[in-house]
Amino acid sequence: MEKYLLGIDIGGTETKSCIFDSGGNLVGTAGVSVPIETPAPDHVERDAGTVWSAVCQTVRSALHDAGISPDRIACIGLTGYGNGTLLADSDGNAIGKAIVSTDNRGQKTVLEARRSGLEEKAFALSHQSLWSAQTCTLLMWLNENRREDVDRARWFLGIKEYIRMKLTGMPCCEITEASSTGLMNIRTRSFDLELFRLLGIENCFRLAPPCVDCSEPLGSVTEEASALTGLVAGTPVTGAMFDVDAGLLGSGILDGDTLGMIAGTWSINEYLSDDISYGYGETTNSVSCSFLEGRYLVEESTPTSASNFSWFLDQFMRPFLPDLSPGELYDRCNEMVASTDPEDSQVVFIPYLYASATHPDAKAGFLNVAGYTTMAHMVRAVYEGVVFSSLFNIRRLMARGKKFSRARLSGGLTNSPVWTQMMADATGIPIEVPDGSELSALGVCIAAGVGCGLYRDYADGVEKTVRVLRTYLPDAGRTEIYRRKYARYEKALEALDVFYG
To answer: pTM value?
Structure first.
């Protein structure tokens, strides 16, 4: 009898449940949006109970969509956005709201740690530069501003770890997430008391959950979770995976010469390496443990990607073209960009609507707009700005002479052949688009398949499930044009330092 794998993906906007057969074919899926709350400036939260309810709802719906009996689910894997944090008590109940990875309340904490030299000291152990929604930063903030919640807590957890605890009753943190929190010693692969002491949160060390590997089975669905989700009690649950790692595995990347790219809310650019010799402030903002033992994930990521285009559509396109469906509107934008030559448009768009990759206070903007600028030029500028934000990160990854033979790109940008070809032309790297739209869920299902013995190892899982849909080869002439345009983009970034002081 055919067995299936269930992947639960807790995204920044939508929570999804996806069911795959052993060949990697998506046979059932369901998703719901979970509201984001902004109770104060720079605070981004969501109710953990609402996330759990969304998981229960989508699991039931995905089983119905697949048309299979729940006893045919061989194993369950979880993925989701990393960092942020959630405090839970000894009974597994959330204390307050779950802080989301787009939260920015910790920015002052980060800047102070940078000025004081604290970040550099911590980097020597964690190989993580601090950022505002990182778990360690948020624990520092919570310790100072909500100490009573910290004192009540028994665990700090990522959102997927909280959901896994609701499924199994067992608290833990898988290795890819743990090594991204700023609290793990990357060499010992364990939470390090010295890091907690350095950051002034020694009292939080008792809140650290046990660490497990990504494909390690850890518990099974409880009777209580079974009643809520429709899953069979006793169904095994694996150790899970940070969504950036899951997306890499779901794209079939197991070597160090292939660049992994995800263009969605974030511009994520990453590759596997056995090198952790990066010094503080050198070329990259983070090195974390990967799903492969002995290999590390080197990553440059910023929330400066296709979500900027969604804003542009909502504010400047939909009001004037209200009769077009979403698909027709996207097609119209692609037609506008295809109708303009890259040399004809000199407008520069900086995609900093939600966060900055350079100056901490910088916001988005259009530069070089003239009286002859058309809407087509503006749309092209948005496409190019998102591409250049990826190129900014990729160049940092390549600063030590690293080269890539190819890239595999996923995310909403791949729905546009025009935009994907632009990415290939601008980077000068052949870009492969894997088949499927739920690659993070597929990646964690590969890990689940390894954990339950359905696949021998990750390579076996990738061979049986991952397929390349399309390949985009760079045009050398356009690569040179975009090289010149990117230099103008870099000047625009420098101008932000002047404008924002």
So the answer is: 0.92
